[in-house]
Amino acid sequence: MSSPLAKFDGLELPPAADFHVPLRDGPMMETVVPLIGAGGVNTVYVMPNLIPPPTSASNAIAYKNRIQQLEPDINIILTLYLHESITPAIVCGAKAQGIIGIKVYPAGVTTNSQSGVSSYEAFYPVFRAMEQCGMVLNLHGECLSDHAKNITILNAESKFLETLEGLHSMFPKLKIILEHCTTKDAIEAVNRYGPNVIGTITAHHLYLIIDDWADDAFNYCKPVVKCPTDREALIKATVGGTGKFFLGSDSAPHDISAKKSGSGKIAAGVFTQPYLLPLIIDAFELAILQGIITTKECLRPL
User: What residue spans of the chain are helical by DSSP H?
Assistant: First the structure.
C-alpha cells in the first residue's frame, strides 16, 4: 500500500504552536533557539526547568528577553517553576505581568527537577489563587519511582492520575494541563474530566514504543515511551477532534555526552525541534498505513 501523501511533492503548512518547549539556558539555549522555526513552529510555551529556576515574573521576563535576543520573531509564552517561595501574591502579580502558567515538577523525577514538589497540599493556597486569576497549572504527570509501592518508570504516569483526579476535584475551575501524555490511561483520564483539564502529546510518543528506547539512549525520555496500544491511543487522540489534546513537543536537548552510558545516569530527553511537524506527519502516515486512523480523520477541519 502506498502512502496517502506520496502524490505530493511537499506540503506547506502554517506555523504551529508548541506548548511544551524546554529551551535551556546559556550555550545550549543559543544552539536550540534558532532551530525552532525549522520545525515549523513560531509560538513556544517555554518550560522553566532552569538552574536557578524562574520563580518570579522578573526572572521569567529576563529569560524571555534572552530568548528574544536570539530569535526576535518567535512568540514566547512564559511559565514559572512551582517552588516553596511562590505565594498567592506572587501568582497574582505574575498573571498581571503576562505569565500564563506555573509548572509542577515532582522532585527528582526529570531534568532539573531537584527544586520541585514533594507535597501538593503545601501549595493549595497557590492553586486557589491560580484558580481565581485564571492561571494554568502544568503538570509533569509522574510519581517518583518507589519500589516498595510498585512504582517504576513504566507505571509512574498511570499512578499519578489519582493525584490529577484529586487536584481537579478540589479545584474544579483550575485550568490543568497534563503534559506529555504517554498512556491510554492518561488519554482516558483527560477525556473523563471537563474542559478545564486538557493534555499535550509529543511528536516522538506518536512513533516510538518501549522497544525503541530499551537499547537506545537517544530515544529515552521521561515519561518513557510505552506500549503499542498506548501509542495507538495517543495517535487517535490527536485526530479525535475533541479539543482536549494539543502539541507539546517536550523536545529536550542535552549535550551528547549526557546521552551516553559510562558517565552516570543517562539524561532523559528526545530532541525533535528542527523536525517537529515532519515527524508528526510521518507518524500520521504510518498510522494510516497500519489502519490505526484514516486519512479523513487527519483532514478534519479545525
Answer: 26-32, 57-70, 88-96, 124-133, 156-170, 184-192, 210-214, 228-238, 276-289, 295-298
Tell me how far apart the alpha carbons of residues 179 and 164 are, in angstroms, rounded to a whole number.
11
Q: What are the DSSP calls for 220-234, one per residue? A: --SSPP--HHHHHHH
Cα–Cα distances in angstroms (integers) from residue 154 to residues 29, 52, 151, 283, in the given order: 30, 29, 8, 22
201 grid coordinates = 502529546
**Residues 137 and 104: beta-carbon distance below 8 Å:** yes
CA distances (Å), 242 to each of 43, 191, 211, in order?
Answer: 22, 8, 30
Q: Which of 68, 199, 211, 215 lies closest to 137, judged by CA?
A: 199
Cβ atoms of 46 and 9 within 8 Å: the answer is no
* Residues, the chain: 302
SS (H, E, C) 19-63: EEECCCCHHHHHHHHHHCHHHCEEEEEECCCCCCCCCCHHHHHHH
Give the domains, in start order, of the chain with CATH numbers. 16-298 (3.20.20.140)
Return the C-alpha cell found at 31: 544552539
pTM, rounded to two decimals: 0.93
Grid cell, residue 131, equals: 484558580
Distance, CA of 156 to chain centre: 16
For the segment 91-149, what is each residue's pLDDT rounded down to a tens digit?
999 999 999 999 999 876 565 556 567 789 999 999 999 999 999 999 999 998 889 99
Distance of CA 280 to the CA centre of its chain: 15
CA distance 296 to 179: 27
Task: Summarize pLDDT for 139-197 with one digit per residue, the tens.
Answer: 999 998 889 999 999 999 999 999 999 999 999 999 999 999 999 999 999 999 999 99
